[in-house]
Design a protein that fits this description.
Blueprint (H helix, E strand, L loop, with lengths): L1 E5 L6 H11 L4 E2 L2 E3 L6 H4 L2 E3 L2 H9 L3 E7 L2 E6 H4 L6 E4 L5 H7 L4 E6 L3 H12 L4 H20 L6 E4 L8 H17 L1
Helix pairs in contact: 6-7
């Protein structure tokens, strides 16, 4: 089974992913190939940096799927990693990739995250994360609005769409676990 978290930058996917990996150490995180320079090991343990020619070669030979260009960097998953397999895997999927991902593996358990409070994303990106410039943050906010709309328009692709607000922030992990626990128990037992 593959668990997918989808939502805009700053919505909290990374935090949820870290919590799930700590609570369920048997969950394996999928590794993305990227042309983006890697950040610290903790932030980028699920990414492998490859050159643009190598990335293009893998994509050309259909070894990569969900290929996308995000903020000037290329990302892709090895096709074999997205296929149904034993065990439980975890990844983040861009909302635009959900249809393609589900064609490859219809058993993906997708959870979408949205917010009607864009200032929440702005605060998280600029105050908490501090990894992007002001111009990059503004690009991400503009993109976030489109991604939220995409998730809301394609709600049927997600097993759950969770609204993230400042007031509900402490409950988000519990909401995710409510969705996942029945599936995790099936796989454990």
């Amino acid at each position: 089974m593959i668990i997918s978290l989808s939502g805009p930058s700053g919505i909290g996917k990374g935090f949820i992913k870290e919590q799930l990996l700590q609570l369920y150490p048997y969950i394996e995180e999928l590794v993305w190939l990227t042309t983006r320079p890697l950040r610290s090991k903790g932030q980028d343990r699920n990414r492998i940096n490859v050159s643009l020619p190598e990335f293009n070669r893998l994509a050309e030979f259909d070894e990569l799927v969900l290929v996308q260009n995000i903020y000037g960097h290329h990302y892709g998953l090895r096709k074999k990693d997205l296929l149904p397999s034993l065990g439980i895997k975890l990844t983040e999927l861009h909302p635009d990739n959900m249809l393609e991902a589900l064609k490859i593996n219809p058993a993906i358990l997708a959870i979408g995250f949205v917010t009607s409070d864009i200032s929440l994303l702005h605060e998280r990106l600029s105050v908490m994360r501090k990894t992007e410039s002001i111009a990059e943050i503004e690009k991400r906010i503009t993109t976030a609005k489109i991604e939220i709309e995409t998730i809301l328009q394609r709600k049927s692709l997600f097993v759950s769409v969770i609204e993230v607000t400042k007031a509900e922030e402490p409950l988000i992990l519990d909401k995710v676990l409510t969705v996942l626990i029945p599936h995790l128990k099936k796989k454990e037992g």
